[in-house]
Design brief:
With about 220 residues, the chain is an alpha+beta fold. The protein has helices at about 5-25, 30-40, 70-75, 75-85, 95-105, 105-115, 145-155, 200-215, and strands at about 90, 120-125, 130-140, 160, 165-170, 180-185, 190-195. The chain is globular.
């Protein structure tokens, strides 16, 4: 073989070897690469949905599934002390105070309460004084509940809400004893209060209790 032919032959072999090596580098992936690719694909599957951050709707208290608890459960005495004062005590069997509360309701409230299938009225006071707080929870079916809600919206009561529950407040002129009328509507229940705290916070505790028991 001449020197010139030998050079051409070795050059051709070098070119073919380089081409073969380049083809291997760009050909089928190694098993490790296939595994990594499968993992990447599985984490981005087209049908996958990201978890929802939406809060599920709250369960409204139902008179069919929930009985109104006793006063100590509705508004624990510790909460009474926090809101109204340490001197307040629970007044059990205070039927005269329950009658007073019912007698001082307006016509629309009276009609709704008369239609109630169940109710609990609780009072706390300072002995030998006129200081008094009364809270009521009543299971009021429609149409009586809806009629009462409409009547409040047409009245002088100020409407607000607590986490979606309609709340109505009316502050009487300064009097001896409780001066704030308070109502809230949640599920099948009407929560009422005749309380000394202007925000109606004591009655709002009963609303929160009914919500927790419904969960």
């Amino acid at each position: 073989m001449s020197r010139r032919r030998a050079i051409i032959w070795f050059s051709a072999i070098a070119t073919m070897t380089a081409f073969a090596m380049t083809g291997c580098a760009g050909g089928e992936p190694s098993p490790a690469e296939e595994s990594r690719g499968a993992e990447s694909t599985s984490t981005r599957s087209p049908g996958a949905e990201s978890p929802s951050n939406e809060t599920p709707p709250r369960t409204k208290p139902s008179a069919e599934r929930l009985a109104i608890p006793d006063c100590e459960t509705l508004v624990p005495i510790e909460r009474v002390h926090d809101i109204a004062g340490e001197d307040f005590v629970y007044l059990p069997d205070a039927q005269n105070l329950a009658d007073f509360y019912l007698d001082t309701r307006g016509p629309a409230a009276g009609t709704a309460i008369e239609a109630a299938t169940d109710r609990v009225i609780c009072s706390w006071g300072i002995p030998q004084t006129d200081a008094l707080n009364t809270v009521m929870v009543a299971a009021v079916p429609d149409p009586a509940q809806g009629d009462f809600l409409d009547a409040l919206r047409k009245s002088d009561f100020a409407e607000s809400s607590i986490d979606g529950a309609p709340v109505f407040t009316w502050k009487q002129e300064p009097t001896i004893g409780p001066s704030v009328n308070w109502y809230a509507f949640e599920g099948d229940f009407v929560i009422g209060g005749l309380v000394s705290n202007e925000s109606g916070e004591l009655a709002a505790v009963a609303l929160d209790t009914m919500r927790r028991l419904a969960e």
